[in-house]
Write a structure and sequence with these properties.
The complex is a heterodimer of chains A (about 300) and B (about 325). Chain A is mostly helical. Chain A contains 14 helices and no strands. Chain A has 2 domains: about 50 residues, no CATH class; about 230 residues, MetI-like (MetI-like fold), CATH 1.10.3720. The longest helix of chain A has about 45 residues. Chain B has 2 domains: about 70 residues, no CATH class; about 240 residues, MetI-like fold. Classes of the chains: A mainly alpha (about 300), B mainly alpha (about 325). At the A-B interface, helix 1, helix 4, helix 5, helix 6 and helix 9 of A face helix 1, helix 2, helix 3, helix 7 and helix 8 of B.
Chain lengths: ~300, ~325
């Protein structure tokens, strides 16, 4: 009970305020969801209705031709597979490396802890920037390989510090009793600390995975063969660049509609994985943000 | 076991039991050897992908040649900086970067605060949760998808233009017209981030004691009084920290969204420092010049954030450090 805010129903003003507030929130929810809903509805409607601008809330002439086209398109499949590989490999590297960085820094008896914390935290304020980073990747001969996508961002210092804070809150008596059992620090990290840190591991996994799935810029500058493009880069070519060209090129009206249908189906395919993990995401991310905010 | 004994001995006497002859750092490193082993990979990562690029900033003072490398390329001092600062295009880039950021700040900064306050006023906890979760969703939609939606919705026969046609009879080429670019950028930015950015304010609000509201109620305070005298003051420190951080970023503007949204006809308002760095550096292979431009931006950023922090300290408000 103590957590509940006091309720005052006194006064008509308060009621009007509450009513307007609820209306405003409903409007907000509509604005947040409608663009995605519209994409979905258009992607399963037939061309003639879309062209007449009649498809706004309810799909008309329902058909899945656009999805058929998407599934038959080989380059989309290749990109989808690439995105999955980059996300899985990249996230695995992210989580393992972040934990390996965070654990020593969380130990008060780690010799040189102050220096290494500074060494790591400094990179949050100073960075080489776009061109020097590109040149390093180039010099390491990683251009046009998966490693150019997954290695340069292997550790997000911000996320790593959230993890370190979490590790710090694990009672040190656990570590000490593991020492008594003859375990070394590597065993302690993987057998004691990580199993106890599942909430933060889940949060980090989701953060990193969504980041990989959604990123396009790195792939765009580091990859040059089309067979290696992730979905986002292909999507950029199809929906953003494609549409710009469309403004000038005079395609027949029908062609254009198929294009819109097709584009929207690709967008849906791209956001479905995010929507699938979103329920898990929203369960964890607020927690992650809080931990970060408390001792950032 | 030996590690433990050593730690225990140290605790008891301050003098380790064995290896008295070794200097302290060596002893300590041996004691932490497994921790060092764990830290090795992250250390190598930071050296390779964070510190090596920092060393690479040196090329902004050179005429960098990929074949000769940093050690072999000729030094040219501040040539690239001079060239950039004297270029008439410099002012356009600074102006565009600042204007987009100022508009984003003006509209985008209060939005999550207002949202948080209004969410806080909702009485039905379940409804509040649902709205919150819906408002976070756009944060997880990729920039490419957001820009794809914008491009399609704003195209000559898109959703927005169908509405425009009803009222004016003609369609507007939104993405081709420089005067709409900032509005589109800022509005879509708010759509993407308002919910997510409200989290931090909502977190600050959960710390407010419910008794304060009760006491205010007894004293006859109405809604506005409570928002004005309890809710706002309790998130004021968070607001000022966020404001300092935002002011510090006035000269920094991400390239990702602009690269997807700008067209030849909107360069005059949309081209900002970071997109210019990308075009000159990665598309034009003018590495030294582009690095100099990037460094200039970073230095201005550091100056801005430091002075914003200083001003805030002087005013007696919260500061970042």
């Amino acid at each position: 009970m103590s957590k509940k805010k006091p309720v005052d129903n006194a006064g008509i003003g308060a009621r009007i305020f509450d009513g307007c507030n609820i209306l405003f929130m409903l409007l907000l929810a509509f604005i947040m969801l409608y663009p995605m809903y519209n994409i979905l509805v258009v992607s399963i409607s037939s061309a003639e209705y879309i062209y007449r601008g009649e498809v706004n809330f309810i799909p008309k002439g329902i058909n899945f031709d656009a999805y058929k086209m998407v599934f038959e398109n080989e380059s989309i499949w290749v990109s989808f597979k690439n995105s999955v590989v980059y996300t899985v490999v990249g996230t695995a590297i992210n989580v393992v490396c972040s934990a390996m960085c965070a654990y020593p820094l969380s130990r008060k008896d780690f010799y040189g802890r102050g220096f290494f914390t500074f060494f790591v935290a400094l990179t949050m304020f100073i960075s080489g920037g776009m061109i020097p980073s590109y040149l390093v990747v180039n010099q390491l001969r990683l251009i046009n390989t998966i490693w150019a996508i997954v290695l340069p961002g292997a550790i997000s210092t911000y996320n790593m510090i959230i993890m370190r804070t979490f590790f710090q809150n694990i009672p040190s008596s656990l570590t000490e009793s593991a020492y008594l059992d003859g375990a070394n620090d590597i065993q302690i990290l993987f057998k004691v600390i990580l199993p106890l840190s599942m909430p933060i591991i889940a949060t980090m996994t989701l953060f990193y995975a969504v980041g990989h799935w959604n990123s396009y810029f790195q792939a765009m500058i580091y990859l040059n063969s089309k067979s290696k493009f992730p979905l986002q880069v292909l999507l950029r070519e199809i929906i953003v660049a494609g549409n710009m060209a469309e403004e000038s090129a005079d395609l027949s009206a029908n062609m254009q509609i198929i294009a819109i249908n097709f584009k929207y189906a690709v967008i849906i395919i791209t956001i479905v994985p995010i929507l699938v993990v979103y329920p898990f995401l929203q369960k964890y991310f607020t927690k992650g943000v809080m931990i970060g905010a408390i001792k950032g | 076991m030996s590690t433990l004994q050593q730690t225990q001995n140290q605790k008891k006497t301050g003098v380790p039991g064995k290896s008295k002859s070794m200097p302290k750092p060596v002893r300590e490193i041996i004691r932490c050897k497994y921790l060092y082993l764990i830290f090795l990979i992250p250390f190598v990562y930071y050296i390779l992908f964070q510190y090596w690029p920092m060393y690479g900033i040196l090329i902004s003072f050179q005429d960098y040649n990929v074949v000769k490398g940093i050690l072999g390329s000729p030094w040219v001092g501040l040539k690239h900086f001079e060239k950039f600062l004297l270029d008439p295009y410099f002012w356009k880039l600074v102006r565009n970067t600042l204007l987009i950021n100022i508009y984003s700040l003006l509209w985008g900064f209060p939005a999550p605060i207002i949202l948080a306050i209004l969410l806080n006023e909702l009485k039905n906890e379940k409804f509040k949760k649902v709205i919150q979760n819906i408002s976070y969703l756009p944060h997880f939609i990729s920039t490419v998808v957001v820009c794809g939606m914008l491009v399609n919705f704003l195209s000559s026969d898109g959703m927005i233009n169908q509405l425009v046609k009803v009222f004016t009879g003609t369609s507007i080429q939104f993405l081709m017209d420089p005067k709409y670019f900032r509005t589109i950028y800022v509005a879509s930015g708010i759509w993407q981030s308002v919910g997510w950015n409200s989290i931090i304010y909502l977190a600050a609000l959960t710390g407010v004691d419910a008794e304060m509201y009760e006491a205010a109620l007894i004293d006859g305070a109405n809604r506005w009084h409570r928002i004005w005298y309890i809710t706002l003051p309790s998130i004021a420190p968070t607001i000022s920290i966020m404001l300092i951080m935002n002011l510090g970023r006035l000269m920094n503007l991400g390239h990702e969204k602009i690269l997807l949204l700008y067209t030849g006809s909107t360069y005059e308002v949309a081209d900002v420092i970071s997109t210019y760095v990308y075009r000159r550096g990665l598309l034009g292979n003018d590495f030294s010049y582009a690095t100099a431009v990037g460094l200039f931006q970073a230095i201005v950023g550091v100056i801005l954030v430091t002075s914003a922090n200083q001003i805030s300290k002087k005013l007696g408000e919260t500061s970042l450090w």
